[in-house]
């Protein structure tokens, strides 16, 4: 009988321990991101969602539609926005992107800083008379020196 009581108490203790650790993950109680230089944001999901919208708006205002950079950024941030606005828990969103929301927000900040620079540099504009060569994977493989012994 004593053994049964001990087993029940251990099981209850284990369940309480799990619940406690899950509650610690709540945004307000998260003590650290574990990433140097990135602080915990109690409103990380909302902040990230707003940053995604800002990136989409800014790239749409400054980068031509035909630019591959714009298409890539828009597709990336539309996907991130859709995921952020989904019914997933914060942990699931982070797992989807293999990054914490605070880290994704920092990446969006960096993209927001890059967009005006890309608009200034215009890497999609090729001056007349300049030929643009596309590097194709087969060409790269063909240019590789033969492996010794083959």
Automatic annotation (TrEMBL):
InterPro entries: NDUFA5. The keyword Membrane applies. One of its GO terms (cellular component) is mitochondrial inner membrane. The keyword DNA damage does not apply. Keywords: Electron transport, Membrane, Mitochondrion, Mitochondrion inner membrane, Respiratory chain, Transport. Transmembrane segments: none annotated. GO terms for biological process: respiratory electron transport chain. It holds the Pfam family ETC_C1_NDUFA5. It is a peripheral membrane protein. It is found in: Mitochondrion inner membrane. It comes from the Eukaryota. Belongs to the complex I NDUFA5 subunit family. This is NADH dehydrogenase [ubiquinone] 1 alpha subcomplex subunit 5.
């Amino acid at each position: 009988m004593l053994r049964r009581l001990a087993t029940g108490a251990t099981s209850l203790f284990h369940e309480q321990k799990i619940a406690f650790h899950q509650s610690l993950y709540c945004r307000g109680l998260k003590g650290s991101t574990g990433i140097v230089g990135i602080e915990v944001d109690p409103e990380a999901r909302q902040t990230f969602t707003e940053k995604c919208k800002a990136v989409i708006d800014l790239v749409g205002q400054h980068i031509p539609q035909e630019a591959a950079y714009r298409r890539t950024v828009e597709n990336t941030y539309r996907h991130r926005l859709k995921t952020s606005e989904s019914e997933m828990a914060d942990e699931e969103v982070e797992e989807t992107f293999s990054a914490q929301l605070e880290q994704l927000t920092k990446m969006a900040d960096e993209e927001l800083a890059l967009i005006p620079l890309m608009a200034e540099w215009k890497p999609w504009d090729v001056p007349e008379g300049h030929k643009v060569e596309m590097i194709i994977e087969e060409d790269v493989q063909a240019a590789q020196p033969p492996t010794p012994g083959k």
